[in-house]
Design brief:
single chain; about 150 residues; 8-stranded antiparallel sheet; 10 strands
Length: about 150
């Protein structure tokens, strides 16, 4: 569905996005886990055996997973992961707010999510195979306190 005379879709596409940590931009090939759901608790009512009440409890989120080509030197993000994951909780965890922006065809931000108090909980590298000619991919998994679903303006 084209938007008037421009030929552009009014809906954003998922392949144009940017990510930043406290103003430092970082390029990623994939961002996974932008998800929130309401948990429910099932409660049986005395004398009623046909069903259980499903009552809302707290909402929950998944970890944010970031994937990109391995950067061998100078990655502040990799340094942050190493410091956090290798310190064995001897030092306080340094959290960061992480912002993901979905961009339109002109590169302008059309929606954004901010993940507050994020910190690395997992770092991994894709399998190394001598029979394949592919980029080495690093994955960084972040836990965070919360994020808010953007509200339509």
């Amino acid at each position: 569905m084209a938007n008037n005379d421009t030929g552009e879709s009014p809906y954003p596409v998922s392949f144009r996005f940017e990510l930043s940590f406290r103003g430092e931009d970082a390029a990623f090939q994939e961002v996974l886990g932008i998800s929130k759901e309401m948990n429910v608790e099932e409660v049986a009512c005395g004398g009623e055996n046909r069903f259980k009440y499903r009552l809302p409890t707290a909402s929950s989120t998944k970890n944010l997973i970031l994937k990109r080509a391995l950067i061998p030197k100078g990655s502040k993000l990799a340094q942050w992961c190493a410091y956090t994951l290798d310190s064995s909780l001897v030092y306080a965890i340094n959290t960061k707010d992480v912002r993901v922006r979905l961009l339109n065809a002109k590169g302008a931000s059309c929606i954004e999510w901010t993940f507050y108090g994020a910190y690395p909980v997992k770092y991994s590298i894709s399998d190394l195979k001598s029979t394949e000619n592919q980029l080495a991919i690093e994955s960084i998994e972040l836990a965070y306190r919360y994020f808010e679903i953007p509200k339509n303006k």
